[in-house]
Amino acid sequence: MSHYESMSYQEQGLSPGGRLRQLLATGKTLVCPGVYDGFSARMALAAGFECLYMTGAGVSMSRIGMADLGLATQTEMVDTAGMIANIDPKTPLIADADTGYGTAANVFRTVERYITAGVAGFHLEDQVVTKRCGHLKGKECVTLSEYLTRIKAAVEARKRRGSDIVIIARTDSLATHGLGEALRRLKAAVEVGADAVFLEAISTKEQLEAYCSTFRGSRVVTLHNMVQGSPQAYKITPKEAEHYGLGIMLYPAVCLLPAYVGITSALRALKGGLVEDDPEGSTPAQIFQVCGMDEIQRTDNEVSDWVQKFEAENK
Ligand SMILES: C[C@](O)(C(=O)O)[C@H](CC(=O)O)C(=O)O
Is 249:241 a contact under the CB 8 Å cutoff? Predict the structure, then answer.
């Protein structure tokens, strides 16, 4: 390892986008667990992931208690993204930017706000603003020209802010227009300035192969969305993803589904009158540890030691 490589990202002077670009440049597939709040983000960090993904579906459900139907606002998304991105600024965060939340001016502002919040990369799609989860039926997409307007607004915001935030162009048009149009849209988005592409709801091997071979050998990073439990998601392992040359694998439901299962079962047990210690032996102290307890207490102690010393010296 060179001296430069052994330096922390901050010492290297890298921005969040720069860190993400550095990880992508290794050519390895970046496995990104979907997190949606401080707790899930802390658990993913504790598990040692190099990059996190903020799932819009997860934010919509955890923050406003609503299904992924385009109800979460720009402010709710930016607030959550900023909180997650700053828990451990060394670990880049890719955030869902949905449709950009309005017109070109809204997209521009979303991107500016994500940059300021410390987000490393985001994906922007071509569904209508009243969007829905990409794995549901009944999606509608805007025209290619409207889609490119969104991408261009994002590229402009990045340029005017002097940022290197990674722009991931997502298309949902595979479901509405077919593979040919979907690939055409992604190629056009790359021409406008997107760094990476995201073909939503790939459901067959043939689609995945056509998608990957379209961008193979180019500078463009390809992303595959592995929504566990969705029949619209063609499932591959991270090892297979390497073989396909995929740069990013998203796992939006990796925390959501176990949270649903675990919490529901604990609540059922409580409803049935059973309140027991966790059979796995987990305790509140243990989860406080995951959420930075030692560091917070160390800081507290250091600060009060310093103040005591200062007061003693200045009596
Ligand atoms: C990737 C996604 O946009 C997300 O919000 O995580 C969703 C995932 C989901 O709804 O399960 C999507 O694929 O649309």
Answer: yes
